[in-house]
Design goal:
alpha/beta; TIM Barrel; 9-stranded parallel sheet; 13 strands
Length: about 375
Amino acid sequence: MSSMQIGVFSVGDVTADPTTGRTPSEHERVKAQVAIAQKAEDIGLDVFATGEHHNPPFISSNPTATMAYIGAKTERIVLSTATTLITTTDPVLIAEDYAKIQHLLDGRVDLMMGRGNTGPVYPWFGKDIRQGINLAIENYALLRRLWSEDVVDWEGRFRTPLQGYTSTPRPLDGVAPFVWHGSIRSPEIAEQAAFYGDGFFHNHIFWPASHTQQMVNFYRQRFEHYGHGAADQAIVGLGGQFFMRERSQDAVREFRPYFDHAPVYGGGPSLEDFSRQTPLTVGSPQQVLERTLSFREYVGDYQRQLFLIDHAGLPLKTVLEQLDLLGEILPAMRAGFEEGRPAHVPDAPTHAARVAAAGGAHDSTVHAVDGVTGQLAEADERASA
């Protein structure tokens, strides 16, 4: 695996195909995620990530079951999430589930923490969305302790205390799954990632380059502030979107109805305006290659690039064709990301590399919840400065 991981992610939406009017069944969409992950491995991608949603029209609840099943059907590809809800999911359950998958997949797993922004989901799990940031801080602090300490005594605001608790199984090789913190627009999440020295993943599919640059630079500065290394050594991931055909005009014509009826941005800006203002690239494989490599110009060298691939009602056949086209430009994309990459910029984190760096020992360093809480009040102001 190279210093840069390239992959795809799925949010698992069940959306009607606007060109035929047909809506796939939930069963079809669940199985489609498996087929996409297998195809991603076949063409040489490094990562497949699945979202976590608990409301219609999504089939991406229980991502751990999806990851475990795909893991049994694949051999090499890293499985991740986009996102794991640290706010509405008990950190004790997260600790158990992802450590178990670590063992089942021999370390081919990491996860992306996020708050979630769908209001009704919070009360379904007995939580209050107004406490979203505080839940994310407290729950993640507990999760780190559950993975780094064999016996935990803990008391907080949002769940029952723990006394002499041991989470099982223990993390594989004594090294917890690598954690990314995913965000679209929240500097608090970037602050949390920087505080712990974790990875920061900017969704990068709805916003202009200037916003992405601002968020990533903020995270890099805070990463350095907390003493984890130089700013350009922070671990960064980006999202992205593309639709390609051999001829750019064919790509635009075919994708336009899907864009116009997409659940999130349909009915808003035109395809052309959205493509100019965000990283969405609709065109030839060469155009997708050049646009993707240009991301380094405003975020610096980074470690993970994931593409949203199967949304807005695109049929599975079309998605698999998109992956074939991505496979054709993948060697050039890898070479482009490696070109001029400074030696001191870290490689993408893998289980094997992290075990080697840790000597196989537990990392027993635990940060106090109050340490990061105290930093978040000023995060918005610093991010916009």
